[in-house]
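Write out structure tokens for EKC/KEOPS complex subunit cgi121.
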Amino acid sequence: MKAGTLSPELAFFTATLVPSTFPVLVAAHKALLAQSRDNLATRTLHSELIYNYSGSKHISEALRRFGINETSSYILVGRFDATPEDLKATRGLIQGSEINLEELSKEASQSLILKYYKITPAELEVSSLEEAVTCRIAARDIL
């Protein structure tokens, strides 16, 4: 699918790499800030959301790792300024059941999250997985 061709425009995440919603909100804030400054690194606001969530400086790697593919079975869909019509259209695009966002942590693959974000066991002794991921998202541009 070509970027920017889906209506409504959406961000599709591999949900097993999302330990909670807070890091996604931090990535969304960064995407909105980049858009307000006319400084998006990607083509669309929604691809910018996935790129920012990844913590990586490589766009293609970020979209490949954190976006979905043909075999994805557990996804998180993000949408900025969703209207009720957008939500209905989104539900029509996805074959599957909707779950509560609080259930994200139950299906998160801690081993993959640790690998992709390069989080060490020592770091988890002093902070949570959510905090470590959020730190990498927030600090990507200054490292």
